[in-house]
Design goal:
The protein is an alpha/beta fold. Helix content is about 25%, strand content about 30%. The chain is built from eleven helices and 19 strands. Strands 1, 2, 3, 4, 5, 17, 18 and 19 form an eight-stranded mixed beta sheet that branches. It has a seven-stranded parallel beta sheet with strand order 6-7-8-11-12-13-16, sandwiched between helices. A two-stranded antiparallel sheet has the order 9-10. Helix 3 packs parallel to helix 5 and helix 10 packs parallel to helix 11. The two termini are about 35 Å apart. The protein binds zinc ion. Zinc ion binds next to loops.
């Protein structure tokens, strides 16, 4: 007879892969999802938890974070962020480059209780100069962009490296223009991995960037404010942006300290251009606002009019597809037993974007319980 380690009862389970949205019991055993039933019979010494009035989801995936703590100035402790955001899978977006990836593997990925992946920075040293008093873009010296080094490190670390990250913009790339992204394109193609493009002040402009992206690639900071937003005159969605969506380029929030403006998001949402993936771009300069974390970012989109049913795939199913990890972001039978129990609070909550606007929202998602490998997780020991 089957035994269970943990049963969570009576929560509203939302699981887009399974087409489930309703009140169900879910049981975990031996690190895997064991059963979803209307009423699961208790067996042996199974721990039980009542989630009445709460939301139960697959463990959340944050596709754009900076968690190379201690080795890069922008890195945050991902286990601390996990506790308040329900993120069970973190994707570091370019903190590490080929020159310091070995440390990311040993000191972050291998010692983590949580799932960790990386998009490898095209620049050799990763994001090395990112602090209030020191801002040196890693793509501003073209000598740092070495295709061979990227290919070699990515080939040896395919288990962790699931994409290539390029920060293309005046701040990250100085006078390098589109060249870093062009090199990233070649590397991503040779590896058959997706390319994630950051953009900031032009050049290059967003149109030029989109011109180098293909189906399955990711435009992060997609709702960034002017200059270089996805809108024309701050009002209409650029034609190239619409075409990019049709081509299958994925739009990722990448909130950060400068990557998300409510005004741009409102226009895009009104035009049907919702984010494919919700991500925080959490790093040292935004972990205490305005981004905070994945769940805070998601709460903002709830207050901008997206429904919880629309938000969930963008934090589970869609980023799992980008990672090519069908066993993550799902609670299908046999999947890794990572789950979160959330509260949906109502009240008046101030939310700030990266352009200085404050929105008073009426809803807020908060973490109740995190389940890792089928057990309640309260942080690193
Ligand atoms: Zn970032």
């Amino acid at each position: 007879m089957k035994k269970y380690d943990l049963i969570i009862r009576n929560g509203r389970l939302i699981e887009p892969n399974l087409g489930i949205d309703g009140v169900w019991d879910i049981a975990f055993d031996d690190g895997k999802v064991a059963a979803i039933e209307k009423s699961i019979t208790k067996k042996d010494n199974a721990k039980e938890m009542d989630a009445s009035g709460k939301i139960v989801l697959p463990g959340l995936i944050d596709l754009h974070t900076h968690i190379y703590w201690g080795a890069t100035s922008l890195g945050v402790s991902h286990e601390e962020v996990a506790l308040r955001s329900g993120t069970t899978t973190f994707v570091d977006a370019g903190s590490a480059g080929p020159g310091n990836f070995a440390g990311f593997r040993r000191f972050i990925a291998e010692s983590s209780a949580l799932q960790v992946y990386s998009f490898l920075n095209i620049s050799y040293a990763g994001i090395f100069g990112f602090a209030p008093g020191v801002m040196v873009g890693e793509c501003s010296d073209i000598r740092l962009l070495n295709k061979k080094e990227c290919l070699s490190v990515a080939e040896k670390n395919r288990d962790l490296i699931r994409g290539i990250k390029v920060r293309a913009g005046h701040f990250a790339g100085g006078d390098s223009g589109i060249a870093p992204l062009a090199i990233g394109r070649e590397v991503a193609d040779e590896l058959n991995l997706p390319l994630m493009a950051h953009f900031d002040h032009p050049p290059p402009g967003v149109e030029e960037i989109l011109g180098l992206l293909r189906e399955g690639d990711i435009l992060t900071h997609c709702y960034r404010p002017e200059p270089n937003s996805v809108l024309t005159n701050g009002k209409q969605v650029k034609e190239s942006v619409r075409m990019a969506k049709d081509k299958g380029i994925l739009f990722d929030i990448g909130h950060g300290m400068g990557g998300m403006a409510f005004e741009v998001a409102r226009t895009m949402l009104a035009e049907g251009l919702a984010p494919d993936t919700i991500s925080s771009d959490v790093h040292q300069l935004c972990v205490n606002g305005p981004a905070y974390d994945l769940l805070h970012t998601a709460s903002k989109f709830l207050c901008l009019g997206m429904s919880i049913e629309e938000l969930v795939p963008a934090m589970t199913q869609n980023p799992a597809r980008v990672l090519r990890e069908p066993g993550l972001g799902t609670l299908a039978s046999g999947a890794k037993a990572d789950a979160v129990v959330l509260n949906l609070e109502t009240g008046e909550f101030p939310y700030k974007d990266a352009a200085g606007e404050t929105l008073i929202g009426k809803q807020k998602l908060s973490v109740d319980t995190i389940v890792i490998d089928g057990k309640i997780w309260n942080g690193a020991e």
